[in-house]
Fold this protein.
Amino acid sequence: MGSDALQQRVRCHLAAVIQEHRDAAGEYSKATQTLWSRIELALEGGKLTRPRLVLLGYQAFASPAADGTESGDGLERVIQLGSAFELLHCSLLMHDDVIDRDFTRRGRPTLSALYRDDALDRGKSAQDAEHAGHAAAIIAGDLLLAAAIRLARRAADSLPAAEAIENSFHQAIHHAGAGELEDLLFSLDPVPAQVHEVLRMEKLKTAAYSFSVPLHTGALLAGADAAGASALANIGSQLGVAYQLIDDILGTFGDPEQTGKSIESDLREGKSTILTAMAAATPGFTDDLQLFRDRDADVPAMRLALESTGAERFARQLAQDLCTGATSASRTLNLPARVSSELEGFADLILNRGA
C-alpha cells in the first residue's frame, strides 16, 4: 500500500469513527454531539505520520502474499491502529493547548478558542471565557483518549500479540504524560534543565507515541518477535528525538511564515529546550542566565544570547547523529528495501524541516 492510499483509508476510517461517536452522543447529549463535530474539525489536515509508521512497522516483518501484496486483514488492522494513534495525537494536542494556554494551532483557532468565543458571545468575562474554552478541550481530549484506546484494542483483537500491542499503546500514553509533566516542571525552574534531562523528556513526550510505538506495534501486528519489534522501536526513538530537536530549533530560530510556529513562545514561557540546555552548559553563559530567570526579558536579547553559544549548531549536529544512527541501524536489521528507504526519507525530512 502506498502513502496516498494509506492516507485516504485512514481519513475515511477516522471520519467513520467520529460519525459513530457523534451519532451515539446525539441520543443523550446534543452539546456532546456538537463537541464531536468540533473534534472532527481539529482532526483535519496533518501529515498522518503515525499511521505511515505503523504501516512501515508492519511491512518490515509481514510476509507478502504470492502477488507481493499485504493481506487484507493485516492492512485493515494497520488502518485501525494508525487511526488510533491519530486520535491519541489529537487528544494530547487538546490537553497541550490547555497546558500552554494556546488558542491557535497551525494558524487556526483551536477547539478551546471556539468554546472561549461562545462564552464571550454569552457575555462572560475574558478570564471565564478562557476557562470555559480550556475546560471543553480537556473534555474533548478525554473522549478522544477513550476512543483511541478502544480502537487500538480492536486492531489487536484475537492476535497472539494482542496483549503486547495493548501494553505498548498504553506505554505510549504513560510516557507522553510523563514527558509533558517533566516539561511543565522544568519551566518552573529558573535554571534550564540539563542536556540529558531534556533528551529524556523529549524521548518520553514526543518520540514514544509519535515514532517509536507506532513502529513497534506495527511490527507486532505483522507477527514480529519481541527482539525485532524492539530494535525497530529503537530506530523510531532516535528519529523521534531528532524530530523534537529540530522542532526546538525552529521554535527559536525558524521562520514563522514557513513553519507556522511562534519563535517567541518557548522563550517567553521559560521552556527548557535542547538550545537552553546546551547554552547553560557552555562556559561564559552563566551571566546570560539572568535573562531566562526574568520573564519580562527582551526575547531578541535571549535569542542573541543563545546564538552566541553555538547551541543551534550543536543541536543540529546531535539531530544529524541521531538520524545517522537510526538509518545505520535499519540497514543492520536487513529490513525490506522499501522500508529502509522510507526510514531514510523520514530522516531527511526531519533534518530539512523549515529549510
